[in-house]
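Q: Can I see a sequence and its folded structure?
A: Here is a first one.
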Amino acid sequence: MEEKARYVTIEEALNKGKDHVNLRGWVYRERKSNKFAFIVLRDETDIIQCVIKKSNAPEIFEAAQPLTVESSVKVSGTLKEDHRAPTGYEVQVDDLKIIQIADPFPITEYQSPELLYDNRHLWIRSREMNAILKIRNTITGAIHEFFRNRGYYEFDAPVFQPMMSEGGSTLFEVKYFDDKVYLSQSWQLYAEAGIFSLGKIYNMGPTFRAEKSKTSRHLSEFWMAEMEAAWMELDEVTEVAKDEIRFIIEQVLKINEKELEILERDIKKLESYAKEAYPTIKYKEALKILNEKYEMDVPWGKDLRTLEEAQLADHFKVPIIVTHYPTEIMGFYKPPSDGNPEEALCFDMLAPEGYCEIIGGSQRSLSIENMKKRLEAEGEDPRTYDWYFDLRRFGSIPHSGYGVGVERVVSWICGLDNIKDAIPFPRTMLRKEP
């Protein structure tokens, strides 16, 4: 029986540097002349140039003529160093097996962003998207590792929920048999039940917001990595958030150097973000910086816009925590401070380079009466939250949590212009396909 060929990845071949190798993948680029056929082969790990010389292998040279971009092939040949090749090595092909000749590829070098989104099922094959998705994988893996190393338990919450957690105007309503429910805006309310059993918990799952926004920073469906911890107050939960982001960046720097280079990301900036301390300031201090240093005239009680968040983060040149936003503009579960009821025990983390809010969190309110009043003011029926109020009736304790916008962190670390590139298949107000 003929021995089955052992195939290696392109990355494994490049690490060898020289040898006879068997590779398989897709045609990334192709160029032919009267004497040579050049194929840049790609797989999930890298690209490599393969050369077929007509005088050495006329049958293989002829077989390669129909090859198009994204045709699938298997090649065998001798690996040698060549500094002119895209990754510094090339394979001199002595065997070629064509698996499928691809139709003309609809994505060429010069295309509009919308065409790339229309063909996202094909564009995720690009080197740029491949690099982004690998970095995303590192980021999500780092989040699991961070919390598990600290003794947190993974805890799942329903996607179908009977009430809002982040504002009724952004709810996606879903028919639920003969009733209606909403797609999850957050894991939080159910997490607050979970801590009474498990103490410290975290989760990563899909989140839905029906925001009528067409900006480069918003998605209708995204992933949120959230945590909740019993006995934790605001000053401690903000430090956990800082530690988590630094850990994520450290992991990306350790694992994804090649991908960061493909994306032309400024690695020195990421190294700074991994090492530097992140300042914590109050909302009122933020207003003072914006109004006195940058003459932005932001009044008390106004939520910070992207422009103002960007200015603050760039002022410090590292991620910063802003706490104690005005209570009146915060969610019903964010409690007023004992020292000043106009200030809520909450925080946002703002990333520099214009990426702005990447984390939002708070200490949680323990006052049923206060939460009922605030829900009524928003037009909500407090009776829908009766099970949630049970968490205050039976063994209430101080507790806190936050959510990390996964795509926002991916965008920032990768240096992306648009958050739609931080997720394999983006969903926005204007895009629901492919």
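Q: Show me another, different protein.
A: A second, unrelated one:
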Amino acid sequence: MSPRGGPAAAMIARAIYTAALALAAPLIVVRLLWRARRQPDYLRHLGERFGFHSCRRAGPLIWIHAVSVGETRAAQPLVKLLRRRFPGHQILLTHMTPTGRDTARKLFGDATLSAYLPYDYPCAMNRFLRHFAPDMGILMETEVWPNLVAACRRRSVPLLLVNARLSERSARRYGWLPSLARQSFGALTVAAQTAADATRLEALGARDVVVTGNVKFDILPPPEQLEAGRALRRQVGPRPVLLAASTREGEETLLLDAFRGNAPPGALLVIVPRHPQRFEAVARMVEAAGLELQRRSAREAIRPETRVLLGDSMGEMFAWYAACDVAYVGGSLLPLGGQNLIEACAVGVPVLVGPHTFNFAEATRQALECGAARRVGDAAELMRSARALLSDDARRSTMAAAGREFAARHRGAAARTVELVVAACGRRA
């Protein structure tokens, strides 16, 4: 078999992949139960994870798969434009996490359908497609599942991968089964975020690739959240506010140690964990560090003696950015790839990032180059940089302006993506 292989090689590879999934079924159930210990909602709608859905379409349907919170929020400008271009269609959003599903409910209410996408078993995917019969499918960012792609191809459902990003690390993983990757990516119309993403996707077999940019630039700060941020700021008073946004496991301990040893004078540290199931664990870390803690969920006035405010709420990230003076964007102190810094730039807050930003490599590079962000090597350097910025009003103002200009300059990806959807489906508005 050649490294690239042909249809027969791809068929064999997909059979091996499906057999491995079948063998892993008990582990999948165990993983669901384990995650349900922290998030009981993982045990709701279990049938949907195997293709048994109860909600039904009421007419022509566009389906968007957004695996979790970040992808669901990124879909927001696409949903808005698709509803304008396809007014007679319903929109179905599918997810893999309860937080993604809850985010869709908060963003769109009853204007869209929401469900879980089944695990990538052929029978489950066939049931899903038979039940909803979508006119087209849109996969957000990196969600490419071989049996799903094959099922859509058999049913002649146009399938697009949009806002597509692929790090070198992910590309290597897909490369373990090159014939299967080429068959899967070759069946998609792809809207890539950057030229580097497009090159990596084409190397895996994608043929119809267009660089459209990152739709996350098209997410505008909601006025009500900006006002909520200003209200939070008034509660804090004149104290400087350092925000640690979308922190990941392992980072909070580093941040708390650095803050305790070298906190900016009088500063309030706000920690907003990326995953809500970790709220309690992070609260215990703060208490173990001997720092006075308050929780956002308590909705109490912020006390002068409070050192750490835990952002244990959902859907308020723009408000947190609007309330702070400097923001560290998490997932980047440890080799986790980093989180989205575009929202912070759009609000106009100076950004600090760690050394590991491969998930948002291009956006981070551009933000660093234009002066909207600074890179730090570790938590100690982060705290030193935060101290310097909090004592330099002029520098913060310059970084804030650079961030707003950077975010505005890159808008338009959602409109370009929707035009690609229209073309791929043979529709003309």
